[in-house]
Amino acid sequence: MDQSVNNSSAFPKIVIIGGGFGGIELTKRLKNKETEVLMLDRHNYHTFQPLLYQVATGGLEADSIAFPLRKIFKDQKNFTFRVTEVERIDPNLKKVYSTIGEIDYDYLVIATGSDTNFFGQKEIERYSMPMKTIPEALNLRSMILQNLEEALIENDPLIKSSLLNFVVVGGGPTGVELSGALAELKKHVLPKDYPELSINDVKVYLVEGSAEVLGAMSEQASTKAKAFLEKLGVQVLTNIRVVSYDGKLIKLSDGQAIDTKNVLWSAGVKGSIPEGLSPDAITRANRILVNEFNQVKGYENIFAIGDVAAFITDEKPNGLPGVAPVAIQQGKMLAKNLISFINNEKPEPFQYFDKGSMATVGRNLAVVDIGKIRFQGVFAWFVWMFVHLMSLVGFRNKVVTFVNWVWSYFSYDRGTRLIIRRFSRIEPVMTKGRDHDDSGSSPL
Amino acid sequence: MDQSVNNSSAFPKIVIIGGGFGGIELTKRLKNKETEVLMLDRHNYHTFQPLLYQVATGGLEADSIAFPLRKIFKDQKNFTFRVTEVERIDPNLKKVYSTIGEIDYDYLVIATGSDTNFFGQKEIERYSMPMKTIPEALNLRSMILQNLEEALIENDPLIKSSLLNFVVVGGGPTGVELSGALAELKKHVLPKDYPELSINDVKVYLVEGSAEVLGAMSEQASTKAKAFLEKLGVQVLTNIRVVSYDGKLIKLSDGQAIDTKNVLWSAGVKGSIPEGLSPDAITRANRILVNEFNQVKGYENIFAIGDVAAFITDEKPNGLPGVAPVAIQQGKMLAKNLISFINNEKPEPFQYFDKGSMATVGRNLAVVDIGKIRFQGVFAWFVWMFVHLMSLVGFRNKVVTFVNWVWSYFSYDRGTRLIIRRFSRIEPVMTKGRDHDDSGSSPL
Fold first, then answer.
1. Where does the FAD/NAD(P)-binding domain start and stop, copy by copy (chains A, B) (predicted)?
2. Are A105 and A95 contacting, i.e. CB atoms less than 8 angstroms apart?
């Protein structure tokens, strides 16, 4: 179908699957290099995932945290982009099979990121809400608002409380940020918008299987984040796992059960990988084993970067964390190394430089670890905002997000509480397998 | 199901169907009056329809032109709101039947606005795109962008040109604004985003059945608007009607046919009315006949305002235009008159004060008629922007829209070219009849 992407130029052709942090950085660094770069993504935009929870809770518009991929590279001559779903790769033929046809490559970079991991628990997957893409965050927003509307007209007290109980599963940064934002929504917005509801009937739980939230951060950060969450009214349940959830009742490992129609799942991720790689190259949580040059195990000209890559060393038996800085640093190094490979020069081994980590719980409440330096509270919150604002792609997004944040700060309000697409569990007619995020309705 | 909305208070109960310009103004004016107000709308937000075309063409985010209805009235004690679809009214029993159950009223106000009118042409309705709601505008945006992506990979020249031909039907303000915005998208954005496409292959047509565009405005405005459109490269076809459209080929009354997958229908509207009114009360284009007090013909305590109302007089045999100022003025007067009716006082007859009309074609290109004063061009464009900015509900929306417009003005760019929900003609599983705008996909 699409001949144009296979036009042979004199330069080696690098195909990059995925326009996340890693794919973007790699592509930028290949500007003006003697290569032909083709990026494939199932969306025509880059998603700034760290702020998805703000979209889900009505703090930001979806368009503020997304940026058209074509626009990022509009001045890059050696760049081509296609919206497509990659179905399979064939390392022997050096081909990618996609929904727009076959595509040849000389070098292939898998930068497909991660997807929600339900650890094989089909029932939980069926009834709980993930939040890894913009359409999923918008679905979540619609669900939250629709359940509030439904609670208003519900007379059965049990069903009513199940509409008003929110259970966030997983105490990593996403779970902490999401439960904090829900608690703030309850505190500042609900009393004004839904005076008919009693604010005490709305409950927010955060369920974490280990002993503390933000387990990857310092103990100080974990302890403080928990205190912040409790200050906001979140019931933090640590050392507790989810046993089952049937869409109505969530059962926990300590024996308690909560009636709820709102289970938000942020308890794990797994790599999103195309078919066709040898099973030897795949490790735990569906990630792709890479060496210090981000070369996929067993292949010379296939690479993986970011969340999908597992760079396992003796010091880091679990690989690197699935965060933007890892993906960006790997993208940067790989650009250099690809040129070395092309020129038969020696590549440089990748080393992760950990700049620190941070998470926000709510207004004036954040935690920051930078090496041995740790701080929490108002200043941490401003640092968190500044770093995230600066990391957003695009000047317009920065300005619009800044306006929204300043406005929210002074008004204690959130801008966008619209049910634009109604959330519904009815499974729509799908066009393609993996893309569980769309299906615009017919206007007829 | 919902008992709460039927709780009897000492005050007369006014049920308002629709949170458009008319419903909002009426409700505001009933603040602190001895009435109980219940507003019903199928969305939880008010839509600023005059700017829908900017959402469809990527100039504004959907959330900037919408505003949560609960928030508008958050300080209004006598106000209750429900998201619901009204199915039928029973004037004898004074009841509204809705998706959340039966609702009693003392006074009923129908402010349901209008929907796209395809004049019974089922095939055209099936294949062309309307733009009356936010979900429809977002579908349109997705369709436009997806067809550009598809054109990139299409080798058949006929199919390729049908993906790149845009036909807007109807030369009223919506059609003029939409075709102008498409022409600007072609001129300023496409060459940067799609360097592989030849800009000359993209064609924008505006088809109008009468002799001129903007027929409701002055001749000067019509002539100038046409000139502005042609300056931007729009092919304006006047005195031409659409004969048929099968999703591939649009046939026109002058014999010509255009291969196109993009037909945008803005050629007419009809009232959206609930069942249960006497046929005597319904007139042309499904509008409800009202007298000078906005009382529906044949009913004492049912009223209609805005687009759905037909206030026909000898001087205005076609009623008033379907624009925001009419709805707002009727809402304002009706608030006064409802209190008069309640107190058995004499109501005041409605008189429309025409403040003028305006339309924008593109950057620096707008037309304004204010009584005998007519002007076009840059100043008209600034007036258009100022009036629309000030009319937007909500301070945050005003600021965000202003930032977007200033940014677009200097960058010649449009912010939000994201395919967030994929457009697809596959008919999804629907929950309810009339609501053709949603179906969030299941995340599973």
1. 13-331
2. yes
DSSP A314: S
Enter the tokens of residue A81.
Answer: 């982009």
Domains and CATH numbers, chain A: 8-42+84-116+270-342 (3.50.50.60), 122-267+356-411 (3.50.50.100)
Nearest to A232 by CA among A422, A44, A57, A34: A57
Contacts of A374 (CB under 8 A, 6+ apart): A218, A220, A221, A367, A368
Residue B335 DSSP one-character state: H
Residue B242: Cβ within 10 Å count: 20
Select which of A25, A61, A177, A208 is catalytic. Answer: A177
C-alpha span between A274 and A288 (Å, rounded): 11
Q: Regarding beta strands A165-169 and A282-283, do their DSSP bridges make them parallel or antiparallel, or are they unpaired?
A: unpaired
Classify strands A262-265 and B282-283 as parallel, antiparallel or unpaired: unpaired
- CA proximity to B342, closest of B11, B91, B40: B11
Q: Do A395 and B417 touch (CB under 8 A)?
A: no
H helical segments located in A232-353: 324-342
Q: Which of A350, A335, A341 is nearest to A292 (CA)?
A: A350
CA atoms of A73 and A79, how far apart (whole Å)? 7
Please give the Cα distance from A53 to B28 (Å, whole number): 34
Q: Which chain B residues touch A426 with a CB distance below 8 Å?
A: 428-429, 431, 439, 442
CB B19 within 8 A of CB B41: yes
Which residues of A, range 23-62, sit inside 8 Å of B by Cβ?
A: 43-45, 61-62
- Among this protein's residues, is A177 annotated catalytic? yes
Give the B window 291-350 contacts with A, CB below 8 Å. Answer: none
Predicted confidence (pLDDT) per residue in B166-221, tens digit: 999 999 999 999 999 999 999 988 888 898 898 899 999 999 999 999 999 999 99
Residue at B30: amino acid letter: L
| Complex ipTM > 0.90 | no
d(CA A325, CA A109): 18
Contact status, residue A130 vs residue A136, Cβ threshold 8 Å: yes
